[in-house]
Amino acid sequence: MVGAWVACGTLVVGAAAAERRRYPDSGYRVRLPNVDRALIDEAKLREYLLSDAHQVGRFKATFFRALGFTLDQWQELRDAILDLAAHEVAEPTEITAFGSKYRVVGLLAGPTGRQATVVTIWIVLHGEELPRFITAYPG
């Protein structure tokens, strides 16, 4: 496969492979592709990560609330996740039938000033260039 490399046993293709070839032994760190245009669905935050009613999300909601994020001001969580993605390293994790997944880990600062390490998962769907937010959880 042209434009592919293996990282930690995971096949990586596309832009990440091109970046790796450009800086093979320099410790170059991959950024989330097109992070400046990353997409986060409002429903993913309001109805999942910040929802007390969601069967799985309610546990994550407790975590994010402890940092000061609220359902009423879900945009603050969106902005904090986008900021984290823009400034931290993106680790290509796997290629699925849907696209290439990335893991971005970093310190997330909440509106109250409290901070915690958070893992975010993103996907760039096959045939697309923009990363889409999948989920986040305590790191």
3D structure, described in words:
Mean pLDDT is 84; it is low at 1-13 and 18-27. This protein has a four-stranded antiparallel sheet. It has a two-stranded antiparallel sheet with strand order 1-2. It has four helices and six strands, in the order ββααααββββ. With 139 residues, it is α+β, with helices and mostly antiparallel strands. It has helices spanning 15-22, 42-49, 57-66, 74-87; strands spanning 4-7, 10-13, 90-95, 99-109, 115-125, 131-138.
Assembly context of the chains: single chain
CA-CA gap between termini: 33 Å
Strand order of the largest sheet: 3-4-5-6
Strand content: 25-35%
Number of helical stretches of at least 4 residues: 4
Q: Specify the structural class.
A: alpha+beta
- The rounded Rg comes to 16 Å
Structural features:
139 residues; alpha+beta; Nuclear Transport Factor 2, Chain: A; 4-stranded antiparallel sheet; two-stranded antiparallel sheet; 4 helices; globular
Write the layout of secondary structure elements.
Blueprint lengths: L3 E4 L2 E4 L1 H8 L19 H8 L7 H10 L7 H14 L2 E6 L3 E11 L5 E11 L5 E8 L1
Antiparallel strand pairs: 1-2, 3-4, 4-5, 5-6
